[in-house]
Amino acid sequence: MKVVIAGGGSVGRFTAQQLVESGHEVTIIESDRAVVREYGQSSSTTGVKWHQGDACDVTMLAAAGVTLADVVASVTGDDEDNLVVSLLAKQEFGVPRVVARVNNPNNYWMFNDMWGVDVSVSTPHLITSLVQEAVTVGAFVRLMQLKGGKAELVEVTLAETSPAKDKALSELQFPRSATVVAIVRDERVLVPDKATVLRVGDEVMALISEDAEAAVQKILVG
Questions:
Q1: Which pTM was predicted?
Q2: What is the number of structural domains in the chain?
Q3: Does residue 41 fall inside a structural domain?
Q4: Is the dihedral of CA 201, 190, 22, 77 positive or negative?
């Protein structure tokens, strides 16, 4: 898989190295010449290609190989830049998947498909969700938004009062736009099928569209 990352800061470098170690071809675009000079030959980013320039420039994106990219991840420290890169990647180059970092939580609402963003990652929102997930049984927790909020990954730890307890997934009438993708039980991850019976304490993760949220919440929480 070919990946282009806009932003050569700590987030971009770490992401790039992890992807390279997994066998992917990664290019980083970084505007700071000093950063490119320092890390371009560093062992910490071995196998990563570097381009020095402004990722908001269409010419630079083309030179970095965005035309052939499967994924563009814009992870700079500037939300405006991340939005511009996302929009260019999607509209000018038709990149199949665009991931963008949200630095200021107040800007989260803008990171949607109107700006070419398929997946937005907001660290404050993610931390809040994980804290809720860890301490709240029976609550409907949104872990991640996809497709600019049109789809989301949600999680519910089943409580004693859940209408879904001791029932097989085939018995629960989930809407067509909702799918249970994983169940964590006794620290083990289960890949569910229709015969899987839900138990109290199960962490049920589902991928849903925005219009299915109320129905899924009613099934799992009550």
A1: 0.67
A2: 2
A3: yes
A4: negative
